[in-house]
């Protein structure tokens, strides 16, 4: 979903006229369904290969999964967010980034900081016997998995006098923009 949201946001900023007038109505839903279907298919294939085959086939399946993960999910997300970030920096200084941009930026930042290192370690362990303990990286990946609601809450209640805003109100404020 982060990949689809990132690309969608980038397209809306780079090509606003096309985005408003010519973008297919259900494009986002179709892209999300395709990405989920690809993800589920790859996970099912890797799981079955690793359970039913020898170690070499499992290793090849895992390497293929990591390569697909980086090329189809992580790379487009990072590239589109860098483009978006550069556009916001180089654009008009009068207009401040909206809450949704802040949420997307923070989500991507935490994903890259906390989620990606474990995947990189797992990828390189397929080639080398690394002595690095994965416990810290696993803990960071767990933090990444649970941090999004807190980001939504903090950004949704930003600049409000009452800091005891419910999570539902914070979600509504963020996604209304």
TrEMBL record:
The chain crosses the membrane at residues 27-46, 66-88, 100-124, 136-155. GO terms for molecular function: G protein-coupled receptor activity. InterPro entries: GPCR_Rhodpsn_7TM, MRGPCRFAMILY. It is found in: Cell membrane. GO terms for cellular component: plasma membrane. It is a multi-pass membrane protein. This is Mas-related G-protein coupled receptor member H. It comes from Cuculus canorus. The lineage of its organism: Eukaryota, Metazoa, Chordata, Craniata, Vertebrata.
């Amino acid at each position: 979903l982060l990949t689809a949201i990132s690309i969608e946001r980038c397209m809306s900023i780079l090509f606003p006229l096309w985005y408003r007038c010519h973008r297919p109505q259900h494009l986002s839903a179709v892209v999300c369904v395709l990405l989920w279907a690809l993800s589920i298919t790859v996970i099912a294939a890797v799981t079955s290969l690793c359970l039913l085959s020898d170690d070499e086939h499992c290793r090849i399946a895992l390497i293929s999964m990591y390569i697909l993960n980086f090329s189809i999910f992580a790379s487009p997300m990072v590239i589109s967010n860098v483009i978006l970030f550069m556009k916001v920096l180089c654009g008009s200084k009068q207009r401040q980034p909206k809450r949704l941009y802040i949420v997307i930026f923070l989500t991507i930042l935490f994903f890259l900081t906390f989620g990606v290192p474990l995947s990189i370690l797992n990828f390189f362990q397929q080639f080398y016997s690394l002595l690095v303990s994965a416990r810290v990286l696993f803990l960071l990946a767990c933090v990444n998995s649970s941090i999004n609601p807190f980001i939504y809450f903090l950004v949704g209640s930003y600049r409000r006098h009452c800091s005891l805003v419910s999570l539902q109100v914070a979600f509504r404020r963020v996604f209304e923009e």
